[in-house]
Specification:
The complex is a heterodimer of chains A (306) and B (379). Chain A is mainly alpha-helical. Chain A contains 14 helices and no strands. Chain B is α/β, with parallel strands linked by helices and 379 residues long. Classes of the chains: A mainly alpha (306), B alpha/beta (379).
Amino acid sequence: MNEFASLLAATLNAGTPLAIAGLGLLINEKVGILNLGAEGTMLVAAFAGFAVAFHTGNDWAGFAAGAVAGGAVAACFGWLVIWLNTNQYATGLAVSLFGGGFSAFIGVDYVGKKLAERPNYSVPFLSDLPFVGPAFFRQHPLVYGAIGAALAIAWFLYRTRAGLVLRAIGEAPESAHALGYPVRRIRLLAVVVGGALCGVAGAYFSVAYAPLWVEGMVAGRGWIALALTVFATWRPARVLLGAYLFGGVTMVQLHLQGMGVDIANQLMSMLPYLSTVVVLVLISRNPAWIRLNMPASLGKPFFPSL
Amino acid sequence: MERRSMMKHLALCVLVGAASLVGCAKQEEPKKPEAPAAQAAPKPEPLKVAFVYVGPVGDAGWTFAHDLGRKYVEQKFGDKIKTTYVEKVPEGPDAERVIRDLVAQGNKVIFATSFGFGDAMEKVARDHPDVYFEHATGYKTGPNLRVYEGRFYEDAYLAGIIAGEMTKTNVIGFVASFPIPEVLRNINAFTLGAQSVNPKVKTKVVWVSSWFDPPKETEAAQSLINQHADVLLQNTDSTAVLQAAEKNGKYAFGWDSDMSAFAPKAHLGSCRLNWGLYYEKAINDVLNKTWKTETTKWGVKEGLPEFVSIAAFVPASTKKKVEDAREGLKNGTVAVFKGPLYDNTGKEVLAKNVVADDKWNGAINFYVKGVDGKVPSGK
């Protein structure tokens, strides 16, 4: 029972950075911008978060720095694809590669540095409950933050006027433009916010999850977050669930190995991507699903007519 | 209007491009050796030595340890040698190009520090009989190509002794990379070390299919801890496992380099690799013209793997056991793999009083008794 509680706790923890980054990318994609640069953005933010947490001794300053760095990288990306109309796919890949190299370059001196002692968090009273306590209430605050963010984004997208405008731009930028909305500025804003969330996720890796900095430490999780948005068919709550599912797959696989169960862990490692392909096949067989969820202008450039 | 804003953006674009170019140029800088030797005084030409690394020097593990070795010889030999390195060289066709390049630049000794560079080294060595080639953890040799490696498992054995003494649950854990003999040797040696002081110990193993993935290493460590393992060792290259142990109030060891600073409460000791000792010998061989083809496997006796920084809180009686074993490994009275030895299905793998030779070591494909589970098949 206790083992199961700690497995649940580890799953929530593993899913959290995926969820935060996935939500950020969801905002991007809802407004019609596909940011394949997530991996690079997260790496730059992971470095920035680590460096700031290292110098200030304050984790929250680290997360803030991660958000700023993520937002800044995303702003560059946004400017390129929104104003210069560069190809979103190529630019995203370039940002991804650039972020990997750039973070390695500026981070050289921080390799092998150590943050101050990591705090353990627990919710008073609730954390002492049997089973539920160790499973749910001894987590890093950002674990709850991710859940809050998913709810907030769902509310924003589907219950507010601003969210409606954002989705409208993602569906039909020309129409939104004709109605007088500043399409490009709103898109840039959404891209920056999305990048900032990716940045928080990146900083979570280097400050809280595996508190160290080495180049390439995000190790492909930016791509999982991208896959997650498709897997979730662009719905915030499903992004959250998907993230926990992906986190759970990882933890269960490691757990089974520890128990001596003979499974191919390589097979389990490809499960997130495999499930994404399956979901893609499923939704593309059902045009109604695509129309309902996938932003119609995703990945397409927009030229405002004057 | 449209045109002007277009120009503005273009200008910005050029600026960003230029800035990133400057960045790239800077990035190259640390790769270069120190400034070209002064042209004035006609001193004897320094021996040019090149290192080919598979990872970044900043990995804090394998490549980092090799680079410490490079710095060690650089300091040792002063202006008698000049070292260069190329990092992040992929194992494959690129490696051959890099090695040929280094030879063309006049390097007379080439150290390639990963198994996968073997074929490339062999090809280039055939074309350049006047250059000395040294390949780490390889097996192919030639008139001017030889191999070297460390008996890392001896360190793992010493770590196991401490693990066996310190564990309260009698469950110890191992975060493993890939199921190759080198890693299986470490898992088995760790287990045997622990069993030598505590026969009740069981080892749990989790494979992460990577040499380097800090988040996944953390997850693996966490899952071992969740299953009651309270002392961990890893064969992966980051400090993540150690830090996960620290956070959970458990114990762990450093690997490749001294990692004691990362986890003051969890760190029990570090399995350090002193490649510099071998590099010193190899360069001396070249300078003294005594270089000959051989296979070097250095263990605790020669000091290549060295178990260092045993935590102050480890009881003196335990430290004594480690020291005894260390002495034993040095004078040959202790052997890590010595019969009778059984695998974890009960099959005898080494007969009574037989000490494993290198051929046996190289063919390990099983867990010894006391390790849970089955070795993942390489299919």
